[in-house]
Amino acid sequence: MSPILRRSVLKAAAVAGAATQFGWALGGKDASAADGTDRAGTAATGEPVSVEWLEDGGLGAAPGSTFGVPWPKGVHPADTAFALAAPDGEDIPVQSWPTAYWPDGTLKWTAHAVGGAARGTDRFSLTAGTPAAPAKGITVTETRRDITVDTGVIKAVIGKDGHRLVRSVSRGRTEIATDGRLVLLRQGDLDEGDRGAARWERFDGEIRGTKVEQDGPVRAVVRIDGKHRKDGRRWLPFSIRLYFYAGAESFRMVHTITFDGDQRPGRDKGDFIRGLGVRFTVPMRDAAYDRHIRIAGEGKGFLTEAVKGITGLRRDPGAAVRAAQVRGEKLPDPATWDQRVTTRLSYVPEWGDHTLAQLSADGFTLRKRTKPGHGWITSGGGGRATGFGYVGGVSGGLSFGLRDFWQKHPAQLDIRGAAGSEAEVTLWLWSPEAQPMDLRFYHDGMGQDTYAKQLEGLNITYEDTEPGFGTPYGIARTSELLFWANEATPTADTLVAQAAAVRTPPQLAAGAGTLSRAGVFGGLFAPVDRSTEARARIEDQLDFLFTYYQDQVEQRRWYGFWDYGDFMHSYDPDRHQWRYDVGGYAWDNSELSPDLWLWFAYLRSGRADIFRFAEALTRHTGEVDVYHLGQWAGLGTRHGVQHYADSAKQQRISTAVYRRPYYYLTADERVGDLMRDQVDSDETFLVIDPQRKVRTDPYEPDRNALSVGFGTDWSGLAAGWLTEWERQGPQAAKAEARLRSTMETIAAQPNGFVQGSGLYDLDTGRFAVADRPVVSVSHLSSMFGLVEMCAELIGLIDMPEFKEAWLDYCRYFNATKAEQKARYGSDFGSLLLFQGHSRQDAYAAAQLDDDALAERAWQKFYDSDAYTSDMDWGRTRIEGPDVLEPGWENVRVNSNETALFGLAAIQNLALVGDRMPDRTPE
Question: Which is it for the CA torsion 91, 96, 102, 105, positive or negative?
Fold first, then answer.
């Protein structure tokens, strides 16, 4: 058992690590979850793992759920099959596949998909065994022109060419929806002032390739790639995945666009998106009074109407008839109604068009009209709509929903033509009623046309500006949608359940003890433990910080299509405002690893609220803060007023280390794509030199001698290589070779990691070994995932020289200048972030069983910098006229220190929690 895991065995109450030593038995209790419940754990001998829903309600109306489970090294061979059972012993059909392997070839992570058979059950037991087969398994058939997926309830025909992504969705012999397609509205120039001369043009999504990625029996996945096209122009690439589950009447869509338009600062002309949506046609077969519109508002609120309403009329068709229409049931023959209504039905308007527009996080409007060419009337409004609706009739119809609808405003739902033979449904990811999507750089450069001037700008606004670098070209955004093919108009309860599935897709998860005992992510976390006053105090502080940021998102309205998921970097106490408009103090863009703080906080607690917060951050930072096309593909952008504004394009933001937890917990294919894209990101060092503005030595990028830092640069490269290697992807052999060769040649440097950087050869994957020792240490080097990467790699690859080089770095960063000089011939200069680096002291202490290092870890944690013993862990009320909206502030809180405090607290508790000093912070 490694020292990391040995030191993870804290108090008996924590019940973490060392599964074999303690002989975990079937049914043994996992560490307590945040809500006080217990989850059964797993033994290192492969005993069953208990998995539960993150939130109450179970599967609900969702089609299915996919979840990940880690396994200790050596427990399960690569070809192990898995079975899932309910508490009563009933076998639940499950589809399983490996997502990562240990170096010995045994399973490290597995993914598991369940369908409708999991409905109504709160807890499941996963174990090695033969899986049950679904009663109605997924079948996938493929022809030259299309792919057909049959869930046993619905059948979807998916196109391989043209504009129709989903040609049809049927239930039995009834066609519920057709012509599923993408729509893009482009505006070529902007209306400035009162000119109002802008023209729109429509582009349709054109398929370039369709591929079956999974074909059942429980889950099928189809990927569609292409671009939007009008006439001869193709732009705005899209990648769509459609997810189907056995026995489901619904399917899920994950929709990604990558911006490749032309929007140049200082110009009113360019590629401005006016609307971006997903559109379906819905056949309308029923009489107008048997056609129904349902649009969700806030909570369980719904607009409940018919295309031709027979309630509220001057004449009454009968109470039973009215009640049936409101319930969405088929009405009796009009001949049986009060004939004063029947004979005048032709004079009752038919409301064929409906629109819900959510143009801000705080308000939506609803309106309707009879048909084009006639006026709209208001039908309601409210605050935050779910983004869900239904159109159809008693013989069937389509429910549809867009996740994070109000959070990623401006969004919109349209129903058109419901009074005719076909209705058209559009889920607008960007509402055409909003202002066009303007991604131009926010200032004119202010004369910063030389590196010297740009460094001066950095010294006043903390933003690194460079002409041409503040471009959105290549950034992306992913959205999630759900569609149900209903055999009749759903009941009110069914609609509420469907809307809930849109808001919060059900997620199964293993408990914190299971995750910890598997030894994944370097063994750097252990389940929440409040067994002592000192531990409880730190847990309270961690809870305060998470809740504070959760509340600040709402208070400061950190929402919007491109912004949702991220938060701000630093606070301005004079304005009682985060510095949203001050250069590099604005959006955080993963600075100092808040992504890892949040994921580690979830891994040790199992809290659903932390999971959802981290999920939104991962969806944002992996897409918006990173380039996926163009010369900087594979690089991310440093923090700034706009997510792509700063001219520092670096590995430290695009690193796969921030995506790994979400991928392995959910098996999300899109995030898997993002990490795979990083495998060849070492090529980006030919394109851009991260140190170009501060170099004093002559340097030109050379394929065989690229300057690459051992900290923020190499950690990003290593994360991509490690992920590809353990996933056994197409470039696994290359990735493993790159890991081993770079680890070997970093360790061979005269001063190891303290050397700072080396010349990297793209062809051999090795660093040249310097001929003389250099001391080049930055406080940032290990704060972007290097700590976590080294812990994982040392546990996976037996390379004593590398381990020693890393332990040396860990031992000496927080050492005295005299100690540094004695070891390296020179001290490390003026450094910062000692509290964040205390986790390196803790790691070295655990590896070396060194009490002195453990003592220093806690001393640096409590009393060095950042959130020290005198930190104020409270909030102050702020109100108008000092602020726009009333709320709370803690002027001491900033995102750099929050992320590092969180990681240091979590990792120190896991590594040297049994050697905490007998005191608590004041």
Answer: positive
